[in-house]
Amino acid sequence: MSPTAQPDADTGNVGALPRTRSISRWDRVWRPFWVLPMVIVVAATVAGIFMPELDRTLDDELPFFFPGGPSGARDMLGTIAGAMISVTGLVFSITMVVMQLASSQYSPRVLGDFLSSRVTQVTLGIFAASFTYALTVLRSVEGESGEGGMFVPQVSVTLGFVLVLASVGMFLAFIHHITDSIQVSSIVSHLGDDTVDVVDRYLPEPDAPGARLGTDTWVPEEGLTPQTVPAQEHGAIVEVDHRELVAWAAKHDAVVEVLLQVGAFVPQGAPAIRVWRAAGAPELDASELEPLRRLVVVEKDRFFNQDPAFGVRKLVDIAERALSPGINDPTTGVQVLDELHRILRLTVTRAELPALVTSEGEVRLVHLPQRVEQLVDLALAEPLHYGKDTLQIPRRVAAMVEDLLTVALPEHRTALQSWLEEAQGLVTD
User: Fold this and answer.
1) Which of 318, 51, 362, 353 is nearest to 187 (CA)?
2) Which of 278, 230, 271, 280 lies closest to 254 in space, CA to CA?
3) How confident is the model at residue 11 (pLDDT cuts 50, 70, 90)?
4) pLDDT tens-digit readout, 73-92
5) Please, are residues 372 and 348 in contact by the beta-carbon 8 Å criterion?
6) What is the DSSP string of 284-318?
7) How far apart are CA 15 and CA 321, in angstroms?
């Protein structure tokens, strides 16, 4: 098989593929907001069951531990349980208010960053764990009328007090985290950090093998027949396992064509992958095609792993909201452009990803990588459109593009020059 490509396409190789992280099963397990708090609560409940048993093996009077009797232990544990469940509700309410504020003030797409905060998750987990631990230990406190005589789990009760101190510390950390994370500078900087990290891993260095093949096109030669693999669920393409797709294509002597970019929406049943094989080759059955669906992952929400445009999209959304007539805050728009400047300054120094990936001289994978020009257009088009009537936005875009032109690779300068002319035209108007 020798599919028709442009002349230098066969020099590409697997090493030019993006160095992106895959979303592992372990990542998926810990992603939901409730998982970490639930693990902390379960651990506290288990400790509440076994700690009193440990207390029974210790001396009756231990120094530096809870010295009171059964009544005092019950009062203390009951107070802890009542207070902790009340404050847990308070923390949850504060979180909901902050999320609502962030959604309305900035963008609904920043909510995932708040929900993924480990500080918020640990705070809720510690408060709920203190409640369940206190109730679990309370059942083991025995008065003098009990069948086994009086029993006060000193170490267990003291540990409950320690959990209260930890809860107070986490509450203070939570308040600091919330007040800091709701500031636009923190939100924008966090998104910029994540996006720069993805760009650095996604786009190759200019001297990387195969990096200059990014704009190549592929036309299947006569005699190749396609077999389409539809998406089984709707959502966004969040991951393409390029190397495994190349290995699968080599094993089946085929060319795998991924029809959608990472970040693109695919409806259920729409074509997502196309497999090209020689006309005489037997058609692959469903079991042989099933691995392809696992290698092109579709989920309800986009993720940063292989999607630099997602971070740019979030930042542009914040800028658009700031530039809307209802808010009219061009200074926030400029803050977003400052962060986009940082991202694009790295982006325009990188080469394009190879659209064609070869193995042993044969094209095995055809895909649609995100392009540098695409990221530049996404970052500049909408802020310049919605901020064209402001004094700050066109000037900031013009200054940004002038700086980008000093570091950009030659193949990216044409697109940047057109944006510079447009921004300067708005400034002079």
Assistant:
1) 318
2) 278
3) very low
4) 888 899 999 999 888 888 88
5) yes
6) P-HHHHHHHHHHEEEESS--STT-HHHHHHHHHHH
7) 40
Query: What is the distance between the alpha carbons of residues 121 and 105, in angstroms, rounded to a whole number?
Result: 23
Tell me the C-alpha distance between 271 and 282, whole Å: 21
pLDDT tens digits, 231-272 = 888 999 998 888 888 889 988 888 999 999 999 999 998 999
- Tokens representing 423? 């921004």
Q: Is 389 helix (H, G, I), strand (E, B) or coil?
A: coil
Q: What is the pLDDT of residue 344?
A: 96
Q: For residue 309, give the amino acid letter.
A: A
Is beta strand 362-366 parallel, antiparallel or unpaired with respect to 255-258? parallel
Residues with Cβ within 8 Å of residue 50, at least 6 apart in sequence: none
* DSSP 8-state symbol, 274: E
Contacts 24+ apart (CB under 8 A), 32-41: 33/115, 33/116, 33/121, 36/118, 36/121, 36/122, 36/125, 37/121, 37/122, 37/124, 37/125, 37/128, 38/125, 39/125, 40/122, 40/125, 40/126, 40/128, 40/129, 41/125, 41/128, 41/129, 41/132
Helix (H/G/I), strand (E/B), else coil: 124: helix
194: its two tokens: 């994540």
Question: For tokens 């209802």, what's the residue?
Answer: 326
**Integer Cα distance of 403 and 274 in angstroms:** 42
d(CA 122, CA 9): 50
Strand ranges of the sheet holding 235-240, from the earlier edge strand across to the other edge: 265-266, 235-240, 296-299
What is the total residue count of the chain? 429
Sheet strands side by side (includes 255-258): 224-230, 271-278, 255-258, 362-366, 356-359
Backbone angles phi, psi at 284, to 5 degrees: -75, 140
Residue 17 has, within 13 A of its CA and on its CB side, a CA count of 21
Residue 404: CB partners within 8 Å, gap ≥ 6?
341, 344, 345, 348, 416
Structure tokens at 16: 């030019």
pTM, full prediction: 0.83
